[in-house]
Design brief:
6 strands; alpha+beta
Length: 343
Amino acid sequence: MASHRRPKQPSRTRVTVLTTAAAAAVVLSANAANAAPSEKLGKDEVKAKVDKLYEQAEQATEKYNGAKEKQQKLQKEISTIQDNVARGQEELNKLRDGLGSLATAQYRSGGIDPSVQLFLSADPDDYLDKASTLDQLSGQQVEALKKIQDKQRQLAQERAEATEKLKDLASTRTELGNKKKEVQGKLAEAQKLLNTLTAKEKAALAAEQQRANRSSSERVDLGNDTSASGRAAAAFSAAQSKIGTPYVYGASGPSSFDCSGLTSWAYAQAGVSIPRTSEAQAGYGAHLSMSQLQVGDLVFFYGDLHHVGLYAGNGQVLHAPHTGAVVRYESINNMPFQFGVRV
């Protein structure tokens, strides 16, 4: 006899698991169908992307340099103010001691003047504004009180200035940290791209960079341009002595450089102090066209002026190019020239 027993129903948990798995399978299938096949970038494409990232890193580097320079300046200013405040407090204490000695002498000769006694226990500003109090003081006492009041006001102003500069320093340090992270992020992204290359492609790219470093450092025709002034010539000679030195962001010598680090260091060797960043250096003198350039002039590139080098003559620039490169010569036409500046 045929059985009429009802078939066993799957448990709710099992239905849920199966339904979820099926849904996931559908989604994965759809994604697979819609996703474009990943294509490995060729060596030249990777190089182009890496070069762009290096450019962006250099933009951030110049902002980093500016923040670092501002931080150092603020730290010096704050230190000076704090030293002044400390000395001022000592002077104030001596003035107060002097007034106390005056009160002691007055007491010995017949009692402390009430106004002086009041001062010794409170702020003198309250009585200096009251003519009735001043009338009760001797000329010596008035002079002492005025000196104390002036010193107190000076100290208050210096402390307020120090407080504002400390706030500025805190925000500058934050900016410095952010720019450092941005630079490191761009360099890490570039390295990640380079890591996608095969060993053979990496070797070929490294060889290209080495050839560029050697050829542009050793076999460059600078012509016979001797138009550099004494200091410009000295700065250019100093920069030449660093050919082959590696580029490192934020570095200003003597064992590594970024672009503005090289130019500021070179001119320092010639006894000339110029700003640290390329943007600030760009405002250091009148702008020159390419035809007006002389050896040793600063030359600026890109619309935001984030790159600077030294004109080397015969259409060449001596500069610290980017991460992975060294201080070397390069055609001035390899980058978007903006203008030159004669220091």
